[in-house]
């Protein structure tokens, strides 16, 4: 029997006719084209005029990450900038509007969304020129795709090949007519080498205006029922089928790829747009909240190279690896997928509840919370890796995807659902409730996350907001809970004032319990984060003293001094000087910066058996704690 999330995915997958590309041809007389220093361009374009256009052009560039490059082994064509081009004609604008309406319908976008075309460049390809497979970068916040207008000319080759998932389409320009091809920005595409003549195109950024609200039609009530049942029924673990508590979230995976910049309710592509509208309407009926997210998906499949029998005459794997298929020429088409062995889905970024902004997260999602109308195996992975038969398991193919998602949860559970990701929004929301003098609401929200916040995947940028919220809660135990996931390496001089405010609010025993919880129970290795933090310890100590918490500085220095002592003792215990000296050299910089002033003056520091540790730059000692032990489950009285 299908689960509610499986029924939901089936409902959303029904009746979708969206395409990833659209094509249309029209008579060329609608367009009047002029180029600076060339003049009026007659259509079809003849070879003499094409050569004049090349003389007015420059080698085309392309983007790679944040760089703009010129590399003729990747892109070999001539580019004319928009400022050099004038488009007109008595029927051009009306024609373009009709083309954009056709494109909108073919790409499966709502009729309430208007498209615009912004000229990006004019391109001229001569014999042998090409553009290797690539994806277009988003050059505008409203950009969702590209429109290519091929000018009529006599040439061979130069086909535009567009790929999406497992489908490929090839478009050839006309000798007599204008040829329009539009496609989404996440589609991989290429221009094959021109074999003769010249290929000329106008390329436009395809922009989508904000959608006009309209009445959503479709199975909204059925989808709302699926959501209500999903969040009220026990979940089932796929591997063991044992029952679990009802799911906290529903993660519906979308079909197209999006960047952080390009992910928004008004910028969804194809079938994603219609499905999102239905899900949001159903969420309102079911009392749920929806946000957009980006997910990293990894799947491990049992697979074997095509044209190879995986079974030998003895009813077992033959154990022969296809070395050629595993080499540089290996492609997805070299392998046949059999059974799914394992998969992992992690939400890496999501928007705020109101659809604005966003934040990076790292939230693993169990299978019982995930559904999709299009399986990942039917899409193109951005990376894959084949591992042949190893003796204890068969051939496997790992595939990695980046997919967007709509994440839903019941409104009454919204705070906890976001908090589990170690969310910046969570801490800001706590502080907002405190500032609004809703202390009871803030404390209730904090209590709702106590069971899992200790293991939240936090990062250093969250420590400041967490300290602010901890002070505002005016509850020592809740403040300990809120600060428990952090580590000492995240503490910087910028946090000194906030930490001092918390210490003044809750007292020195509370402060010691916090610091002992942040410090590792074992002496860490010389990792880059901890080593950098040790080198910056004098600045941190000064900031803590100036903020009124010298005891915190003393405790941290005592711990680091003990760590350095153990590290140097381990180095000097090495008998071979050739091995000992490099180890001592690595330990020297943090030793110099963290050694207590007035401390022992010897090559190897002795463990301090006294009860004081001196703060760098300060003559008098301050009380120091025993070397702290890691304790996540600390608490303090009010």
From TrEMBL:
Biased composition (Basic and acidic residues): 600-611
Keyword line: Dioxygenase, Iron, Metal-binding, Oxidoreductase, Vitamin C
Entry keyword annotation includes Metal-binding: yes
Domain of life of the organism encoding this protein: Bacteria
Ranges of compositional bias, category Low complexity: 581-599
All residue ranges annotated as the Fe2OG dioxygenase domain in the record: 116-208
One Pfam family recorded for the sequence: 2OG-FeII_Oxy_3
Protein name: 2OG-Fe(II) oxygenase
């Amino acid at each position: 029997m299908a689960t509610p999330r499986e029924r939901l995915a089936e409902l959303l997958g029904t009746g979708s006719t969206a395409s990833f590309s659209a094509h249309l041809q029209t008579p060329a007389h609608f367009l009047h084209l002029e180029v600076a220093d060339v003049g009026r361009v007659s259509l079809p374009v003849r070879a003499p005029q094409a050569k004049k256009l090349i003389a007015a052009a420059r080698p085309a560039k392309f983007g790679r990450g944040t760089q703009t490059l010129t590399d003729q082994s990747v892109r070999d064509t001539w580019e004319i900038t928009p400022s050099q081009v004038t488009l007109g004609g008595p029927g051009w604008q009306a024609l373009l509007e009709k083309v954009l309406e056709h494109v909108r319908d073919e790409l499966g976008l709502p009729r309430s969304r208007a498209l615009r075309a912004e000229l990006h460049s004019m391109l001229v390809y001569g014999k042998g020129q090409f553009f290797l497979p690539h994806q277009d970068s988003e050059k505008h916040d409203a950009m969702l795709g590209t429109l290519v207008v091929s000018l009529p000319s006599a040439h061979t080759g130069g086909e535009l090949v567009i790929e999406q998932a497992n489908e490929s389409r090839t478009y050839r320009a006309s000798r007599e007519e204008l040829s329009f091809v539009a496609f989404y920005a996440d589609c991989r595409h290429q221009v094959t080498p021109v074999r003769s003549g010249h290929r000329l195109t106008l390329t436009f950024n395809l922009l989508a205006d904000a959608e006009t609200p309209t009445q959503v039609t479709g199975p909204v009530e059925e989808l709302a029922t699926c959501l209500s049942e999903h969040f009220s029924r026990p979940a089932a673990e796929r591997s063991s089928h044992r029952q679990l508590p009802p799911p906290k979230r529903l993660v519906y995976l979308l079909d197209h790829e999006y960047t952080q910049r390009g992910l928004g309710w008004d910028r969804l592509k194809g079938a994603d747009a219609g499905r999102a509208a239905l899900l949001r309407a159903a969420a309102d009926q079911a009392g749920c909240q929806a946000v957009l997210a980006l997910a990293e998906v990894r799947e491990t499949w049992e697979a074997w190279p095509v044209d190879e029998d995986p079974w030998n005459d003895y009813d077992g794997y033959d154990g022969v690896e296809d070395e050629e298929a595993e080499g540089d020429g290996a492609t997805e088409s070299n392998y046949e997928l059999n059974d799914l062995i394992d998969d992992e889905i992690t939400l890496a970024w999501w928007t705020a509840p109101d659809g604005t902004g966003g934040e990076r997260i790292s939230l693993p999602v169990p299978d019982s919370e995930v559904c999709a109308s299009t399986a990942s195996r039917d899409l193109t992975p951005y990376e894959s890796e084949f591992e042949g038969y190893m003796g204890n398991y068969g051939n496997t193919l790992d595939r990695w995807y980046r997919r967007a998602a709509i994440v839903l949860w019941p409104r009454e559970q919204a705070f906890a659902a976001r908090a589990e990701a170690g969310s910046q929004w969570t801490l800001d929301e706590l502080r907002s409730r405190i500032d609004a003098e809703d202390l009871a609401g803030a404390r209730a929200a904090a209590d709702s996350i106590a069971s899992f916040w200790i293991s939240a995947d936090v990062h250093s940028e969250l420590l400041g907001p967490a300290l602010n919220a901890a002070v505002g809660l005016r509850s020592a135990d809740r403040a300990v809970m809120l600060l428990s996931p952090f580590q000492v390496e995240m503490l910087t001089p910028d946090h000194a004032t906030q930490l001092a405010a918390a210490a003044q609010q809750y007292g020195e025993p509370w402060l010691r319990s916090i610091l002992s919880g942040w410090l590792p129970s074992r002496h860490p290795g010389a990792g880059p984060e901890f080593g950098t933090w040790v080198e910056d310890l004098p600045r941190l100590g000064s900031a803590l003293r100036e903020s009124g918490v010298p005891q915190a500085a003393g405790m941290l220095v005592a711990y680091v001094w003990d760590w350095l002592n153990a590290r140097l003792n381990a180095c000097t215990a090495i008998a071979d000087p050739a091995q000992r000296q490099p180890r001592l050299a690595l330990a020297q910089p943090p030793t110099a910066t963290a050694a207590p002033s007035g401390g022992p003056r010897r090559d190897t520091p002795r463990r301090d058996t006294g009860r004081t540790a001196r703060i760098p730059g300060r003559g008098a000692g301050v009380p120091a704690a025993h070397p702290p032990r890691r304790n996540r489950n600390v608490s303090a009285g009010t």
